[in-house]
Amino acid sequence: MTKDSSHTFIHLHRSHHADLLEDFNRTHLPHEDIYVPPQHQPLNPDDEDDVVPEQHAAFGIQRATQRQQEPAWRDLGLDRILNEGPPKNQRQNEQLSKVRLLR
């Protein structure tokens, strides 16, 4: 309960209002069960133990490792560009344009 010296927004006109307010604040509401539809309920991890997986986890891993990966082209030729500079004649320029078209 607030003291008379502290400012509040509640103005009690009668003295028995203070008793009612204390009784109101003291009571606790019981917890109620709330119905949640099944589609909104979280999955129960215990239920997943009984389910047989459609695909074994190792099958996907083996398949991914057996697949032949496409070789990655990592040589960008930057050292050649730094050493040689831009093309000096028409023939080198044509070769570079063909390389660009192939990409």
UniProtKB/TrEMBL annotation:
- Per the record, what is one GO cellular component? anaphase-promoting complex
Carries keyword Cell division? yes
Q: Name one Pfam family in it.
A: Apc13p
User: What's the protein here called?
Assistant: Anaphase-promoting complex subunit 13
Task: Write out the GO biological process terms.
Answer: cell division
The answer on whether this UniProt entry bears the keyword ATP-binding reads: no
Taxonomy, superkingdom: Eukaryota
Alphabetically sorted, this entry's keywords are:
Cell cycle, Cell division, Mitosis, Ubl conjugation pathway
Looking up InterPro entries in the UniProt record yields: Apc13
- Where do the record's region annotations for Disordered lie? 80-103
Annotated organism of origin: Aureobasidium melanogenum (Aureobasidium pullulans var. melanogenum)
Q: Give the protein family.
A: Belongs to the APC13 family.
